[in-house]
Each structure stands twice: as structure tokens, then as C-alpha cells.
Amino acid sequence: MTTTAPGAADEAPPDPATPDASTPDPAAPAKDRPTGSSPWQLARRELRRRPAVRVSLGVVLLFVLMALAAPWLGALGGWSPDAFDKAAVDPYLGGKPLGSLGGISPEHWLGVEPVTGRDLFARVVHGARVSLLIAFSATAVVVLAGTAAGIAAGYFGGRVDALLSRLMDLTMSFPSLIFMIAMLSVAKDVNRIVLMTAVIGLFGWPGIARVVRGQTLSLKHREYVDAARVGGAGAWRILTRDILPGVSGPVIAYTTLLVPGMISTEAALSYLGVGVRPPTPSWGQMIAESVAFYETDPMYFVIPSVFLFLAVLAFTLLGDALRDILDPRGGRT
């Protein structure tokens, strides 16, 4: 016969379906979460536990610093990206770089470009500046436009939601790459960096708008939003103080995942000849020019390709980790 300790029958076992009060709700606004559980603090705390993600973050920071310091790095190498060095190529062999591995030497740290003799190190670091500038600028346009449209559609509903949703569907139905090529080919005497940023942003915002719209629909009927509405708060205050903090986690994760796609898009457009124009260096443009020399000088193809691959891989791994941390439900769907 078993005996029951006094008071044990009065204590009900914990219900596994009931959430622990100490567990922060990822959809709740920052002011309703426990101290230290904002999206940035949560990401920083979790990223410390993942060595592979720390390596990716280090590579990302390295590329960003390289892009910011491109003029000084080029000067440190002793060459500008447009300076020709005819002494580094053999005119009797079709301009093939002198020396092994594409002309790598103490004067040219990553070798030289065939025929022209331009320094590859200087062109790669300046190409990083152009590629990342376009990628970050286009990402900013996409995130700002998509977040604003998604919050407006989800919160106001009705005709606003119908209009913005149809606009999202219409934009996503276009074959974006074909339209990008056509628009960039028609525009001639314009700033290519500004034009590429605008064109890429024009076709990129509906994806994040749909994510934000879905999050907003789940947040606008929460108790704290209803309390703010009953308390007389206006729509702008509710959107900025209650809704926006609640969608910040998925937006941050989605933003990091957008960057590698933007880098690849810029490289693809430059590879096709409708991106930035020579002599402005770009990784995609360098890869396109290296195709003609891949048999005689494979290093000219390998070097910009490796930099492009590492940048896309690092941003992708970092974005996947942030999505798992900040938007776990979105990552499982």
C-alpha cells in the first residue's frame, strides 16, 4: 500500500502545454519581454554558443572592413585598381601574366589581370566595396518598403490590405531578372550603382512584406495592442510602439538572408554586362572578363570567384542562424 505525503494531492502536476512565465514570447513587444531578451541581445547570447556561426560572423566583418578600407588597402598594396603594369605581362604570349599563379609576387599580392597588368588585389577589394554597397543599399530599400507595406496591410486590413496584397502579387508575378536586364540596358547615362539599387529594390520588397503582414495579423489582436487602442493611442503610436517591436525579430533574420541574394544578383547582372560599367571593378564583372582566360590564366577566374563564394556563404550561414534564433516558427515552415 502506498502512502501519499501530506499536501501532495493538493499540488497539481504542471501542464506541459502551459508556457512557462519565464520564457519570453518572441512575438511580444520588447517592453513586455524580460530584461535582456531583445532581438539583438537574444541573438548575441545564442551566437556565442555556435562556433561555426562565429566564424561566419568574422568573415562577414572582414569583408565589410575590407570594403570600407578599400582605398587604403589598395594604397597599401601599392597599386590603384585602374593602373596598368605592362612589365607584369608577357606581350609575346598574348599578355599572359609573368610568373606562376597568375603573376603572384611581392609587388602583386594576388597576381595581375591578363593583357592589362592591373593589380588583382586592388580590383578585388574595390570590387568588394561596389558589390557590398549595392547589396546593402538594395537590402535597405527592400526592408524599409516591405516592412512598411506589410505592417500597413496587416494592421489596417480591408481595402488597404487588398490593394497592397494585389500589388505584392503583381510584382512577384513579373520575371524579375528579365525586367532588370531590360531596364538596366535601356538606361545609359545614369549612375549605375543608384540604378541597380533601385531596380533590385523594386522587385525585392514583396517577399518581406508578406512575412511582416502575417506577423502583424497575429499581433494586432493581442491584449497589449487592444489595451493601447482602448487607452486612446493612435494608429501611428500602436504601429511604432507595439507592432514594429513584435515583428523586429523576423525582419532582422530576413534582412540577413537577403544580403547574400543581393550580392549574387549584383554579380549576375554585372556578369551579363548590364551592371556597373568598366573601369569600375565588380566581382561579377571580373568573373565575366576572366572567362576568356580560364585556360591560360585560371587564377584570374579563381580569385574573384572565391571571394564571391565566401561572401555569399558567410552571409547565408549567419542569416540561417539568426532565422533559427529570432524566428524559429518561420524557420520550421
Estimate the strand proportion: under 5%
Query: Reading side by side through the largest sheet, how are the strands ordered?
Result: 1-2
Gross morphology = elongated
For the biggest sheet, the summary is:
2 strands, antiparallel
Could you say which structural class the secondary elements and strand pairing correspond to?
Answer: mainly alpha
How far the N terminus sits from the C terminus, by CA atoms, comes to 50 Å
Uncertain runs are: 1-24, 26-36
In words, what does this structure look like?
By secondary structure, the chain is mainly α. It is built from twelve helices and two strands. The chain has helices at 39-47, 51-68, 70-77, 120-156, 158-173, 176-186, 192-219, 223-230, 235-271, 283-290, 298-326, 328-332; strands at 89-90, 96-97. It has a two-stranded antiparallel ribbon. Helix 4 (120-156) runs parallel beside helix 7.
What is shown here, in short?
The protein has 333 residues and is an all-alpha fold. It has helices at 39-47, 51-68, 70-77, 120-156, 158-173, 176-186, 192-219, 223-230, 235-271, 283-290, 298-326, 328-332, and strands at residues 89-90, 96-97.
Secondary structure blueprint with pairings:
Layout: H1 39-47, H2 51-68, H3 70-77, E1 89-90, E2 96-97, H4 120-156, H5 158-173, H6 176-186, H7 192-219, H8 223-230, H9 235-271, H10 283-290, H11 298-326, H12 328-332
Antiparallel strand pairs: 1-2
Considering the chains and any ligands shown, give keywords for the structure.
single chain; 333 residues; mainly alpha; two-stranded antiparallel ribbon; 12 helices; 64% helix; elongated
